[in-house]
Write a structure and sequence with these properties.
TIM Barrel
Length: about 500
């Protein structure tokens, strides 16, 4: 292996030392698995009293999930998660319920599970839309911050119902308000095309709406669920098509367990990236009721994981989500991924997942991919086998946020193309930098199919596994900085 490959590989494994004090927190970063969409008993249903229509309905605790916050935290640790977000959805005056009852349970669960970084948040009822995971930074303002945001802006919190809460401009007002807070939350769109009526026929949320969210508050609206939850859903007598399908997607199915916005090569995710957005994708459980209890879900971390390269610290995990140091995976197909892109003639000038590399148009680039495939049985009892990994590239300048015609598979790696280095698979490729800004990303699967096909109700999700890495971004410069002596941060562990 060339010297630059050895250096990059050492960085990917976290083997190099960083001597400066400012770099020390960065040196503590490693891949941490998490789930930002988990429900508890405080995802209540509401009982309307016909004799008192002007009286706020009473919440039915456990109405939409029977799991306590502590049980979710315990299961998260059992299935290998390092961080989790408690995200109950709302209803009339739900902000008061969260404040009075969910918050104390979060505090108790943090004490009972000290090795899990537990975030307080909610599944925000998006005005004029569906839902988004709202994740609050740790600190003394958490409890009151959530009550303030939910009571002001959540679509269903007001009683009597406020028609203005059901309008999309209200969401933009919410993002502007959040952007003015001294400690900013993170917001990730959940199941982005669950209401679509066909392929590319968007429902409550179109890609342009996400572009507006990001433009309004780029440090808050940072991405979307690539792989939604409810992956254990199966057809049952009396269920409609949506509730018997993976993800509860009734209009247009998931593809390999991932939302069509992400799974379609050159589709909406690539369209957003092609419009210049740094837009991060994730994977979650959306846990309400476990499949063994008759539900449609897996436990947090049992099937889907969002891996963030961060120090074991709440603030750095949120920073990793914001910066896109993330990959999403189902079925524990892999548990480590790094993509390093370097200038071929200056390997010290490099970037990894979530970072930006300055390159000259047409410059030679060296791409190195490290993957650690499954080493032990997953929650389905199998040790999945990686079939292939795709190196994908696209450029900025897409005609719309809905698609990017420049996105293509640069190279497909199979077992004959990669080499083994301990538990890792290593893949390398040389390519020319594009003539305008762009991005490089990777995906992989245990399937032999080239592109993920629409999921069929009742299929076994454990036999259809994928991972998606978030991009390395390319920025065009006519002149670029000289190669630095060593990168400023490691990119793996």
């Amino acid at each position: 292996m060339m010297l630059r490959s050895l250096l990059a590989y050492a960085l990917a494994l976290g083997l190099t030392s960083l001597s400066t004090a400012s770099a020390q927190p960065v040196a503590e970063r490693r891949w941490l698995a998490g789930d930002h969409h988990v429900h508890s008993v405080y995802s209540a249903r509401y009982r309307i009293d016909p004799d008192r229509p002007d009286h706020a309905p009473d919440p039915i605790i456990g109405g939409d999930s029977r799991h306590s916050i502590l049980l979710n935290a315990q299961k998260a640790r059992h299935f290998g998660l390092d961080w989790m977000v408690a995200t109950d959805h709302g209803g009339p005056n739900h902000s008061a319920l969260n404040h009075a009852r969910a918050w104390p349970d979060v505090v108790a669960a943090r004490q009972a599970q000290p090795h899990l970084i537990l975030f307080y948040g909610m599944e925000f009822d998006v005005p004029g839309g569906e839902h988004a995971s709202l994740i609050l930074p740790h600190g003394p303002a958490e409890r009151d911050m959530l009550r303030d945001l939910e009571s002001r802006f959540a679509e269903r919190d007001a009683f009597p119902a406020d028609p203005a809460r059901d309008q999309k401009p209200r969401m933009i007002a919410a993002l502007r308000y959040m952007n003015g807070l001294p400690e900013k939350p993170v917001l990730i769109a959940n199941h982005p095309s669950r209401t679509a009526t066909g392929r590319g026929k968007w429902g409550l949320h179109a890609p342009d709406e996400f572009r507006l969210w990001h433009a309004t508050a780029p440090d808050i609206a940072i991405g979307m669920e690539g792989a939604p939850g409810h992956q254990a859903a199966r057809p049952k007598p009396g269920l409609d098509n949506a509730h018997g399908s993976r993800g509860l997607y009734g209009g247009y199915p998931t593809m390999g367990g991932f939302d069509q916005m992400v799974a379609t090569l050159g589709g909406a995710w690539d369209g957003l990236l092609g419009q210049g957005l740094h837009w991060t994708i994730t994977a979650t459980s959306d846990s309400h009721g476990h499949w063994s209890e008759g539900g449609a879900d897996f436990w947090p971390g049992e099937y889907a994981k969002t891996w963030v390269f961060a120090a074991p610290d709440a603030a750095d995990i949120l920073g990793g989500l914001r910066q896109g140091r993330v990959f999403a995976v189902t079925g524990d197909l892999i548990d480590r991924l790094n993509v390093s892109v370097a200038a071929s003639d200056a390997p010290g000038r490099s970037a990894s997942t979530g970072e930006t590399l300055d390159v000259r148009p047409g410059e030679d680039m060296h791409v190195i991919i490290w993957v650690r495939p499954a080493q032990s049985a997953n929650g389905g009892g199998d040790i999945p086998v990686l079939d292939h990994v795709d190196l994908i590239s696209g450029v900025v300048g897409a005609p719309s946020a809905e698609h990017n015609p420049t996105t293509h598979v640069v190279r497909r790696f199979t077992a004959r193309d990669w080499r083994h280095d301990g538990a890792f698979l290593v893949m390398e490729h040389h390519m020319k930098a594009p003539d305008r800004p762009g991005y490089i990303r990777v995906r992989g699967t245990n399937r032999t199919e080239g592109e993920p096909s629409p999921d069929v109700a009742g299929e076994n999700p454990w036999q259809d596994l994928w991972f998606y890495g978030n991009p390395v971004y390319l920025s065009m410069r006519q002149s670029v900085p000289a190669a630095r002596a060593s990168p400023t941060q490691p990119v793996g562990d």
